[in-house]
Specification:
The complex is a heterodimer. By secondary structure, chain A is mostly helical. Chain A has four helices and two strands, in the order H-H-H-H-E-E. In chain A, strand 1 and strand 2 form a beta hairpin. Chain B is 38% helix and 13% strand. The chains are: A mainly alpha, B alpha/beta. At the A-B interface, helix 1, helix 2 and helix 4 of A face helix 9, helix 10, helix 11 and helix 12 of B.
Chain lengths: 100, 469
């Protein structure tokens, strides 16, 4: 079973605050899932290439990537996007200070 | 106006049996009356729907051309962006988020005159197989209100099955269109990876996600698929589908039935109904071959590495700063992240982010993610080998019919097993659909899964029409 410290370490990497109860629960649940995943150890993949993109063969590489140009958006779109931010001042999104 | 397919609704509008506003009002009233007990919709967009319908009626009055989807009321899974409507993903973290733009598939449907009735319920961020993971409410199966509708597109499937829209859109990462379609007795298509632009679909596992239609007939699924598929500059993985018109000659058809999909664990009633459906195709002249997909038993394990890994990266964007729920307290920037995400995400979402973060963390990448991507190649090769001999593959969509609400929610692994027949298709990027082929003694629908070669979406749609009543 994975340890309490390991769960807390992963939670910190994932930027999720867990309560004590959740830590215990994840110890059990993640261990069960990782045990299930161990069946893959039976498979010999020493000569096999990974598949990251299943339809790769069908992509036309000439048109794959759009020209590297910025497209300016109308003001109202920008306003709309800023409106979504929880904390803002005029047309700026506010974040907490990162230097104390 | 009850039980209208897309074609019937179109004909009714064309022949002026009813106006688009009348048809839309009919559905809006029906939703108001009946959706309290089903909860297929999170948001009902009366205003948008009626204004769209009015426009269509003006076009009809001017005798303009009427595309088949014009004025036909539909619903959208609440993870696909419709400008000006909430796009909650059934999550507390996006509870009040309003989409600032249209997804490409929505833009195409709007251009064709679709009427959008609202946004449908799902498992939070499409993570689940029962719609029980919605932060708002559980959707009930219209065939039996004590049963789940399947998931994650449970709201979209239930809305079609309960006739609360003519058709809907869902998304499918590991079975999320096909399994609820099977549980609710409707048709659901997971298109080839890249057939439909994912622009505007909130990202879950990017190498597996696809948008697709949920409909009352195979014919309708084909209409919607052809309307929204195609290359889109805003999604670099999108591809122009090659095969548009396919004339089915059932007597020339060779169907493969993989022995690995008929093993212990499958409900005997489901197996019997699927075997009957296969012999129905045989009676019409198709040849049936038993085939083997030897790496099938590893598919779910591969999926439960790749999917959470991609999800953990994609869901890093919910930081409590750009949009969505923000919980700050009076502390540091790190606390904003920890608190917003700790309080905003539900159990299953946290579980998958944790699993993915673990698989991608230092020292584990080769053992988990890379290994899984290699076994994925073997799963894909199994299908390539099979398709040298057969035109399409028939399997059950799910090993069992709809289960009871609450039955599997406490045990994540048993819930994950309900995707055992659907995940391979996403890993291999293939098109697959679920079409209803019968009912159990308890009157629960059973779906047949038809899997095709890459970008032969229209071919499997044609094949599935032999089961259209």
């Amino acid at each position: 079973m994975i340890s309490k410290q390991e769960v807390q370490h992963i939670a910190k990497l994932a930027r999720i605050k867990l309560i004590e109860q959740e830590v215990k629960k994840f110890q059990k649940e993640l261990s069960a899932i990782l045990d299930y995943i161990k069946t893959l150890n039976e498979v010999d993949v020493s000569k096999i290439e990974p598949t990251f993109h299943a339809s790769e063969d069908f992509i036309d590489e000439k048109t794959l990537i759009r020209p590297d140009k910025s497209e300016s958006q109308p003001e109202e779109v920008v306003d709309e996007l800023i409106k979504s931010a929880p904390d803002k001042k005029a047309r700026h999104i506010k974040v907490k200070a990162i230097f104390q | 106006m009850n039980n209208l397919t897309i074609t019937k609704a179109h004909n009714g509008l064309k022949r002026k049996e009813f106006s688009a506003v009348e048809l839309t009002t009919f559905f809006l009233n029906k939703i108001k009356k009946q959706d309290k007990k089903i909860f297929s919709y999170i948001t009902v967009s009366d205003e948008l729907a009626l204004s769209q319908a009015k426009e269509i009626d003006e076009k009809i009055a001017k005798k303009k051309d009427l595309p088949v989807l014009s004025g036909v009321p539909m619903a959208v899974k609440d993870i696909i962006s419709v400008k000006g409507l909430k796009n909650t993903c059934a999550s507390k973290i996006l509870k009040d988020y309003i989409a600032p733009y249209d997804a490409t598939c929505i833009k195409k449907l709007k251009e064709l005159g679709a009427v959008i009735l609202g946004k449908t319920n799902l498992d939070e961020f499409a993570m689940g197989s029962s719609t029980e993971n919605s932060a708002f409410s559980v959707t009930k199966n219209p065939c039996d209100l004590k049963k789940v509708p399947g998931g994650s597109s449970g709201g979209s499937a239930a809305a079609v099955a309960a006739d609360l829209c003519c058709y809907s859109l869902g998304s499918d990462t590991g079975g999320s269109i096909r399994q609820p379609a099977s549980f609710c007795g409707v048709v659901g298509l997971k298109p080839s990876y890249g057939a439909i632009s994912r622009y505007g679909l909130v990202a879950f596992a990017s190498s597996l996600d696809q948008i697709g239609p949920i409909t009352k007939t195979a014919d309708d699924a084909q209409i919607v698929f052809n309307a929204i598929s195609g290359r889109d500059l805003k999604d670099s993985t999108s591809v122009d589908s090659k095969i548009i018109n396919y004339k089915l000659e059932i007597k020339n058809l060779i169907i493969g039935v993989p022995k690995e999909y008929f093993v212990k664990g499958i409900d005997p009633e489901v197996e019997k109904i699927i075997r009957q459906a296969i012999s129905q195709a045989e009676k019409q002249g198709a040849r049936i071959f038993e085939i083997s997909l030897p790496h099938t038993k590893y598919a779910l394990a591969v999926y439960y590495i790749i999917m959470p890994s991609e999800a953990s990266a994609n869901l890093a964007r919910y930081d409590g700063i750009k949009y969505g729920l923000s919980k700050s307290g009076n502390k540091s920037l790190l606390d904003v992240y920890l608190e917003s995400r700790g309080q905003g995400f539900g159990k299953e979402v946290k579980r998958r982010i944790m699993l993915g973060t673990y698989a991608l963390s230092a020292g584990y990448y080769d053992a988990y993610y890379l290994k899984a991507q290699k076994v994925r190649t073997l799963i894909k090769q199994d299908f390539e080998n099979a398709f040298k001999k057969v035109d399409a593959i028939f399997t059950p969509t799910s090993p069992f019919p709809a289960f009871k609400i609450g039955e599997k929610i406490a045990d994540p692994l048993s819930m994950y097993l309900s995707d055992v027949f659907t995940v391979s298709v996403n890993l291999a990027g293939l098109p697959a659909l679920s079409v209803p082929v019968g009912f159990t003694k308890a009157k629960l629908p059973v779906g047949l899964q038809i899997i095709g070669k890459p970008f032969e979406d229209n071919k499997i749609l044609e094949i599935s029409k032999i089961y259209d009543k």
